[in-house]
Specification:
- It is built from 9 helices and 15 strands.
- It is of the alpha+beta class and 313 residues long.
- It folds into 2 domains: 122 residues, Aminotransferase class 4, branched-chain amino acid transferase, N-terminal domain (D-amino Acid Aminotransferase, Chain A, domain 1, 2-Layer Sandwich); 170 residues, D-amino Acid Aminotransferase, subunit A, domain 2 (D-amino Acid Aminotransferase, Chain A, domain 2), CATH 3.20.10.
- The strands form 2 sheets. Strands 7, 8, 9, 10, 11, 12, 13, 14 and 15 form a 9-stranded mixed sheet that branches. Strands 2-1-6-5-3-4 form a 6-stranded antiparallel sheet.
- A hairpin with a 5-residue loop joins β8 and β9.
- α4 packs across α9.
- The chain is globular.
- The two termini are 20 Å apart.
Length: 313
């Protein structure tokens, strides 16, 4: 079986040989935009939407790529195609774009003129381990906790810019693990309103209505957008709202959405059981509609990958 490759600054190279300079601004300052797309049955899910968000982040960071969106999309699909043969046919993938400004200020003289450009990396990584680790959660549900770390307010840093400089997310994850091992961190903003998890958006159901936090202090997820679209198609009332942690304790259902995991229900929030702890009826309807649209059952895929990973241990 062949080995994975990455697209790295105008050429395809073996993944094991990919290296960035110690003076790259992505390393020295976290000055790097990124996107993570996933495949369903080897088809990238809403790749164009992810690329549009990437270019939006780059524009906000004043980073200009020497290629356009169409060319980046073509290179992305080629990178995926080159990596598919490295895994079994039923394995899906994360597609990862990382773009930094290139050489950091103060070190540019160490680079030739042609190397003083943004660093572009397109890589693909199989979802085996990530989905396998989540297999139990698709049946038992997630635990969500609010850590002391707050979300950054938009007036300090625009929430639509997706960058690698997310130390507050890491601190939130560490704090969540201290509160409850294995829990997902759900951040609130300085005003006490729910924003997002460190790896996805959150929804809750109260009195038959689907609610999700207002977008001013959070990243607008591609999967979040899909869920709101499906809610409209299914006739489920849905709206964005300011939601405090305290009032969210009365939710009958709660779930997290993200590119990699799709839709995953929460069994507890802040130590309180949500409903009876299982996925509620609206969550099930939305997940079934999502799975029908993409042709993949999340739980079955995760369980399949978990069985495969257990044989490797």
């Amino acid at each position: 079986m062949s080995r994975r490759v990455v697209y790295f600054n105008n050429r395809f190279i073996p993944e094991k040989d990919a290296r960035v300079s110690i003076y790259d601004s992505g390393l020295t300052a976290g000055d790097m935009a990124f996107e993570v797309t996933r495949t369903y049955r080897h088809q990238p899910f809403r790749l164009r939407g992810h690329l549009e968000r990437l270019f939006s982040s780059l524009a906000a960071l004043w980073i200009t790529l020497p290629l356009g969106m169409d060319e980046l999309e073509r290179l992305t699909l080629e990178t995926l195609a080159r990596n598919l043969p490295t895994e079994a046919d039923d394995v899906d993938w994360n597609i990862i774009h990382n773009v930094s400004r290139g050489p950091a200020a103060g070190f540019r003289d160490a680079f030739s003129p042609e190397d003083r450009r943004p660093t572009l990396i397109i890589s693909c990584y199989p979802l085996l381990a990530k989905m396998a680790a989540l297999a139990p959660a698709y049946s038992t549900g997630l635990d969500l906790v609010v850590p002391p770390q707050r979300a950054l307010p938009a007036e300090l840093f625009e929430s639509h810019i997706k960058t690698r400089s997310r130390l507050h997310y890491k601190l939130a994850d560490l704090q969540a693990a201290e509160i409850r091992p294995g829990a997902f961190a759900l951040l609130v903003d300085p005003d006490g309103f729910l924003t997002e998890c460190t790896s996805g958006n959150v929804f809750l159901v109260r009195d038959g209505e689907l609610l999700t936090p207002e977008p001013r202090n959070l990243l607008l997820g591609v999967t979040r957008e899909m869920v709101l679209h499906l809610a409209g198609e299914l006739g489920i009332p849905a709206r964005e709202a300011n939601l405090t942690a305290a009032e969210s304790l009365s939710a009958q259902e709660m779930f997290v959405t993200s590119t990699s995991i799709g839709i995953l229900h929460a069994r507890t929030f802040e130590g309180h059981l949500i409903g009876d702890g299982s996925a509620g009826p609206i969550t099930k309807r939305l997940r079934a509609a999502f799975e029908s649209a993409v042709g993949v059952n999340f739980a079955q895929q995760a369980e399949s990958y978990a069985r495969r990973m257990s044989k490797l241990d």
